[in-house]
Amino acid sequence: AVERTLSIIKPDAVAKNVIGEIYSRFEKAGLNIIAARMLHLSKEQAGEFYAVHRERPFYNELVEFMTSGPVMVQVLEGDEAIAKNREVMGATNPAEAAPGTIRADFAKTVDENAVHGSDAPETARAEIAFFFNDDEICPRTR
Ligand code: CMP
C-alpha cells in the first residue's frame, strides 16, 4: 500500500554535505519527496519531537545533538514507504547497519546516526503533522 513517512537528515549529515547523496538513495528506492523544509530546531521543538524518549538516558544528549545545527525534514511517499525508508537507512546503530545503507555509509555512532525515519503508520502521521501543514504537502500529479 502507498504510505507516507517522515524523514529527517540530522545535523551531522547536513554538516557533511551529503543531503543530495541521501536524497538520491530515497529516489533510487522509489520514495518520492512530496514535502521538504530545512530548519534549525529549538530545544523545545527537539524535546517535543522526541518526547517518547524523555525517560531514556540518552534524551538530553539527543536534544543537544538535534539542535547543534540545521536539519532537513521531508515527507517520503511510496509503496510501503515506512519499511522501505527504514531499509534504506539501515539499523539505528551504524555499527549494525547493513553495507550500502545510509547509516553504514554516512554515520559513525548511534548518537549521530545521520537520519531519522518514522517507525509505524501512527507515528508517521503524528511526525508529519509535527512539521507540515496539509497545504505544504505536494503529492505527484504526473
Ligand atoms: P532516531 O530514529 O532519531 O530516534 C531516537 C534517537 O536516539 C535514535 O535515532 C538514535 O540516534 C538516538 N539514540 C542514542 N542512543 C540510543 C539507544 N541506545 N537506542 C536507541 N536510540 C538511541
Explain the overall architecture.
The protein is of the alpha+beta class. The protein has seven helices and four strands; from the N terminus they run E-H-H-E-H-H-E-H-H-E-H. Strands 2-3-1-4 form a four-stranded antiparallel β-sheet. The longest helix has 11 residues. The radius of gyration is 14 Å and the shape is globular. The mean pLDDT is 98. The structure holds adenosine-3',5'-cyclic-monophosphate. Adenosine-3',5'-cyclic-monophosphate binds next to loops.
Please describe the structure with a list of short key phrases separated by commas or semicolons:
single chain, 142 residues, alpha+beta, four-stranded antiparallel sheet, 7 helices, 4 strands, 39% helix, globular, binds adenosine-3',5'-cyclic-monophosphate
Short description:
The chain is α+β, with helices and mostly antiparallel strands. Helix content is 39%, strand content 20%. Bound molecules: adenosine-3',5'-cyclic-monophosphate (CMP).
